[in-house]
């Protein structure tokens, strides 16, 4: 890996930044928000995994829609490419410049904490909270830990404002639950990864905060039991189920070995699979009774081999820490090949086993994810990056997913990493229409070039 510029060619249609450009940006944003400091640029040019590195010479920090609009209008007229960046926690190389595109950042936004202090909750929760930003979340259509309960951002985002490449501001900031007046264009911006416009405002449904939350950390002997347990949880916990996550033994081992202070909630023996189930409801005794009855019948039926229910908030966060900490543990363990797949639940783990057989002792295959949404996070971990390992994984992993009509990007997006792989999950005609939409909204192709659409089709 290293420089991403090795993967694609810089488009000759883009100009190079000059001193007049810098003066213009300073006149709009003020000195402070036009950043040329090398250390700050080095951070903005590098992604969370430290796998993709760009070479942008400029970071702009607009504070308002009007400033974003002025910047884009200017960049469009000058053919200066722009890489929109939020919290820079993306996992597909989407948020960092590939070459010298200007990076554009918006201010940090501790939204979850703010909403949680009221009597509502954010329908989206993910391990990157505290670092990621709502514009990035919407632009990636992030899924996260509670999608099984609240659904995707396509349902939860009620409206948004976006700035187009030419600086036009699209006001679609409705707050209505129902609105069928014509094409619902906000959906174009949810999950388009900064390639169609910059999201500057969002209105989002925030469900009421409920008082009774329970978390169980469970062990299962095999994958079939996890799968059956999910079916049972959907039937028996029904409306109170708020998360159903799984980790295999490799993911658990990594978390326990690499996360500071992590302790195994089930230390008595080693298990092949672990499942974290959360319930959220409004009636404590009713919810507890429901969860206990479900756990008891699942134990008796042999679906659960061991388990513990969190007794207080500290224990609950220690369970979540293990699950949410796996991406961090993977980074600490060395080189990391990441695949984020939607697959039929019953087939999902066959891929993991096939991958283990292919890789033999070359690398560790680590599986975990949002089982409740049929979303597998398949990670291959090795001491260092090695082309021999990559050749065993790709294109096999994509072909396998395509054969089972799965998605090669369940929730992280395509970014730079998978722009050229889109055909594994989308038909040529669909990609052609996507390209036409991109050309219509951003004819000069200045917004996040080299990402999302195949490089040959990027304008
Ligand atoms: P960035 O990384 O800055 O950008 C992501 C993409 O959005 C880029 O293409 C960028 O150009 C574009 N973008 C950013 N802001 C804007 C904007 N305002 N307008 C237009 N385009 C914009 N993802 C999940 O889906 N589920 C998870 O459970 C999850 N867990 C994670 C856990 C960890 C520890 C980490 C590191 C990442 C995780 N992610 C997860 C991935 C990542 O956090 C999400 O994709 C997140 O939504 C990215 O938000 P961000 O603000 O960091 O965006
Ligand atoms: C998660 O669910 C994130 O923890 C990251 O989506 C997944 O590291 C990954 O592969
Ligand atoms: Zn995830």
Describe the structure.
The protein is of the alpha+beta class and 459 residues long. The protein has 4 domains: 2-108 and 434-441, Uridine Diphospho-n-acetylenolpyruvylglucosamine Reductase, domain 2, CATH 3.30.43.10; 114-123 and 130-204, Uridine Diphospho-n-acetylenolpyruvylglucosamine Reductase, domain 3, CATH 3.30.465; 212-326, Alpha-Beta Plaits (2-Layer Sandwich), CATH 3.30.70; 334-413, Alpha-Beta Plaits (2-Layer Sandwich), CATH 3.30.70.2740. 35% of the residues lie in helices and 19% in strands. The protein contains 17 helices and 16 strands. The strands form 4 sheets. The chain has a 7-stranded antiparallel sheet with strand order 13-10-12-11-15-16-14, sandwiched between helices. Strands 2-4-6-5 form a 4-stranded mixed sheet. Strand 15 (364-370) and strand 16 form a beta hairpin. Helix 9 packs antiparallel against helix 11 and helix 10 packs across helix 13 (326-333). The model has no long low-confidence stretch (mean pLDDT 95). It binds flavin-adenine dinucleotide (FAD), (2R)-2-hydroxypentanedioic acid and zinc ion. Zinc ion binds at residues 369-370, 377, 411.
């Amino acid at each position: 890996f290293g420089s991403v510029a090795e993967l694609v060619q810089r488009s000759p249609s883009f100009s190079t930044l000059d001193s007049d450009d810098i003066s213009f940006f300073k006149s709009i944003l003020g000195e402070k928000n036009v950043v040329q400091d090398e250390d700050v640029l080095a951070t903005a040019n590098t992604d969370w995994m430290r796998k993709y590195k760009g070479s942008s010479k400029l970071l702009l920090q607009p504070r308002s829609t009007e400033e974003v609009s002025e910047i884009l209008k200017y960049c469009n007229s000058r053919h200066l490419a722009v890489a929109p960046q939020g919290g820079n926690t993306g996992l597909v190389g989407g948020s960092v410049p590939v070459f010298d595109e200007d990076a554009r950042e918006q201010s940090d936004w501790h939204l979850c904490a703010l909403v949680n202090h009221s009597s509502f909750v954010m329908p989206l929760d993910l391990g990157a909270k505290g670092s990621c930003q709502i514009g990035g979340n919407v632009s990636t259509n992030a899924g996260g830990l509670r999608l099984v309960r609240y659904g995707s951002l396509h349902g939860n985002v009620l409206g948004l404002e976006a700035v187009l490449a030419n600086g036009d501001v699209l006001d679609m900031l409705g707050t209505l639950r129902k609105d069928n007046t014509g094409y619902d264009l906000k959906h174009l911006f949810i999950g388009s990864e900064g390639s169609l416009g910059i999201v500057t405002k969002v209105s989002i449904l925030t469900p009421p905060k409920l008082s009774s939350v329970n978390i169980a950390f469970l062990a299962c002997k095999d994958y079939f039991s996890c799968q059956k347990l999910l079916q049972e949880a959907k039937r028996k916990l029904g409306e109170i189920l708020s998360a159903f996550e799984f980790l295999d033994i490799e993911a658990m081992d990594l978390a326990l070995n690499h996360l500071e202070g992590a302790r195994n909630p089930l230390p008595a023996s080693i298990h092949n699979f672990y499942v974290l189930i959360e319930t959220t409801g409004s009636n404590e005794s009713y919810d507890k009774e429901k969860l206990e009855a479900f756990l008891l019948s699942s134990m008796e039926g042999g679906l659960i081999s061991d388990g513990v229910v969190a007794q207080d908030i500290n224990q609950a966060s220690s369970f979540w820490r293990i699950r949410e900490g796996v991406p961090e543990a993977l980074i600490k363990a060395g080189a990391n090949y990441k695949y984020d797949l939607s697959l039929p639940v019953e087939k999902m783990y066959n891929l993991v086993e096939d991958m283990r057989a292919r890789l033999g002792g070359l690398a560790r295959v680590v599986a975990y994810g949002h089982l409740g949404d049929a979303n597998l996070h398949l990670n291959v971990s090795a001491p260092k990056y090695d082309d021999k390992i990559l050749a065993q994984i790709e294109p096999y992993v994509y072909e396998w997913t395509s054969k089972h009509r799965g998605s090669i990007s369940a929730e992280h997006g395509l970014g730079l990493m998978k722009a050229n792989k889109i055909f594994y999950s989308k038909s040529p005609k669909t990609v052609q229409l996507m390209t036409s939409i991109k050309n219509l909204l951003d004819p000069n192709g200045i917004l996040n070039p080299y990402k999302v659409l195949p490089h040959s089709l990027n304008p």
